[in-house]
């Protein structure tokens, strides 16, 4: 515990509970905060190594950046992301409040519902379904290597637009993710503590393999990507990589209070998250470039889907082990960034009817019903949707940080924040809608999306998160605010 961290007395917590707030929303007392720096160190280490991140590295090479520049850009990006996560996480670690209440402190009790719904429900549930489908593709390859006849079940029959083996694999993987989600943060802590060492053993082995079969580091670092766009200035290329990495962390970064509320101290979450992201990305930067380029050199093709490289191996036990670890990393990422935030947000929207466990169940069912394999039939619409959600969350994060640090001076009145919503609370600064926050968010959103509609501003689309965050942050500080009592 730090002197700057705040804790309510049991009597004060009892008063808040009588106002209708369940245990999932109440400020966490210190005796229930069980995450030290080591827990945060393992929390994000596994999330870095997932299938979409490896594919993104191939995209960075197509910008015309050299392999070495891609590595350096990823490492710089990790420092920026770590700063974002720890800075936005202080409200949670200082007061023990979840994202829903952190959002309320910025937008007001009514105003918090829309950005909370977009992050905690729309983005999280959609991502949860899409990550489950991506993971199920790896599971399908894994099962096919162990039991080839499985892939022929049902023949050419499809159900709900997906093959029978594909639907079975998706359902199995979905169910595993749901069970991890039910366990919440405690189960996730144990899960990631076991998983993280496995990740680095397996991916370290892959990197060594790629290094050897490619002819060495010089061959990898001098690799020339066929079809790369050569006219991207190196500085702008770096900004595009940083923006892309920030976009990956836009959702968990906005709702990071759901995790930092369990911190034993602010110092623990700052040290743990920083070490986790920076160390994780340094290793990822090296491993991803070496594995993708090394595999491409070895097989004589340009291959940026790491699953396809693994599937080409002639060592079945190695394929099984590696695919299994990829599946586990997807589970870890999915629980951390999607199902847990979705469940918490549902409890915030309906605190008297939905608790965390019910939130997990509802979010999981919706993620299945949206049939994510259908969404992936048209990749353009998916990326437009996800980029739009990311563009929304950049401005939201900008306003949250501006509000907490520069307007509220890192001070939140918990008694006012946990208001009795049945009262008028006309003098409560957290009541209603913070119009300045909404204006800044909307203007930031318009600016961040402008490049998609105005050809002359196309470059903005490539750094949309940075534009949205920076513009909303600045505009909010310039607008008039509600006065405190």
Please describe the topology of this protein.
Elements lengths: L9 H9 L18 H12 L2 H11 L5 H22 L1 H6 L3 H9 L5 H34 L11 E2 L2 E2 H51 L2 H5 L12 H15 L1 H5 L2 H4 L5 H34 L6 H6 L4 H34 L6 H14 L2 H4 L3 H29 L6 H4 L17 H15 L8 H5 L1 H15 L7
Antiparallel strand pairs: 1-2
Helix pairs in contact: 2-8, 2-13, 2-15, 4-10, 4-13, 6-18, 7-8, 7-15, 7-16, 7-18, 8-13, 8-15, 8-16, 15-16, 18-20, 18-22, 20-22
Quaternary organisation of the protein chains: single chain
- Put simply, the count of helices is 22
How does the overall form come out from the CA principal axes?
A: globular
What share of the residues does DSSP label as strand, in percent? under 5%
* Helix and strand composition category: mainly alpha
Q: What are the low-pLDDT stretches, counting only 5+ consecutive residues below 50?
A: none
Rounded Rg:
23 Å
Order of helices and strands: HHHHHHHEEHHHHHHHHHHHHHHH
What is the share of helical residues? over 70%
With strands numbered from the N-terminus, the spatial order across the biggest sheet is 1-2
Q: How many E-type strands?
A: 2
């Amino acid at each position: 515990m730090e002197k700057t961290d705040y804790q309510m007395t049991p009597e004060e917590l009892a008063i808040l509970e009588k106002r209708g707030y369940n245990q999932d929303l109440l400020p966490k007392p210190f005796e229930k905060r069980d995450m030290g720096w080591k827990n945060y160190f393992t929390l994000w280490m596994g999330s870095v190594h997932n299938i979409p991140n490896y594919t993104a590295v191939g995209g960075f090479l197509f910008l015309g950046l050299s392999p070495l520049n891609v590595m350096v850009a990823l490492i710089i990006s990790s420092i920026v992301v770590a700063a974002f996560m720890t800075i936005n996480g202080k409200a949670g670690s200082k007061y023990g409040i979840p994202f829903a209440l952190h959002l309320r402190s910025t937008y007001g009790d009514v105003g918090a519902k829309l950005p909370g719904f977009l992050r905690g429900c729309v983005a999280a549930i959609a991502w949860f379904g899409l990550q489950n489908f991506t993971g199920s593709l790896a599971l399908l390859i894994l099962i096919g290597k162990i039991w080839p006849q499985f892939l022929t079940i049902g023949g050419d029959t499809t159900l709900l637009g997906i093959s029978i083996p594909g639907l079975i694999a998706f359902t199995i993987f979905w169910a595993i993710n749901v069970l991890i989600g039910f366990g919440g943060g405690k189960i996730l802590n144990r899960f990631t503590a076991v998983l993280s060492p496995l990740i680095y053993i397996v991916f370290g082995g892959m990197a060594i393999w790629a290094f050897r079969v490619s002819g060495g580091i010089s061959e990898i670092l001098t690799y020339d990507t066929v079809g790369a766009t050569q006219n991207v200035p190196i500085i702008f290329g770096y900004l595009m990589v940083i923006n892309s990495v920030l976009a990956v962390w836009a959702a968990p970064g906005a709702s990071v209070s759901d995790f930092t509320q369990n911190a034993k101290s602010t110092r623990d979450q700052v040290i743990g998250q920083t070490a986790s992201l920076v160390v994780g990305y340094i290793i990822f930067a090296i491993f991803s470039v070496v594995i993708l380029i090394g595999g491409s050199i070895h097989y004589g093709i340009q291959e940026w889907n790491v699953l396809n490289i693994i599937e080409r191996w002639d060592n079945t036990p190695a394929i099984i082990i590696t695919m299994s670890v990829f599946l586990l990393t997807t589970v870890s990422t999915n629980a951390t960034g999607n199902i847990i935030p979705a469940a918490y947000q549902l409890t915030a929207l309906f605190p008297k009817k939905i608790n965390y466990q019910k939130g997990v169940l509802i979010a999981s069912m919706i993620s299945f019903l949206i049939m994510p394999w259908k969404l992936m039939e048209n990749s353009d619409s998916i990326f437009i949707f996800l980029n739009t959600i990311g563009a929304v969350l950049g401005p939201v994060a900008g306003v949250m940080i501006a509000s907490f640090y520069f307007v509220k001076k890192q001070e939140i009145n918990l008694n006012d924040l946990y208001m009795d919503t049945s009262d008028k609370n006309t003098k409560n600064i957290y009541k209603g809608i913070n119009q300045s926050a909404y204006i800044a968010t909307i203007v930031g959103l318009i600016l961040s999306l402008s490049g998609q509609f105005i050809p002359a501003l196309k470059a903005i689309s490539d750094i949309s998160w940075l534009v949205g965050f920076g513009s909303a942050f600045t505009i909010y500080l310039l607008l008039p605010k509600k006065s405190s009592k």
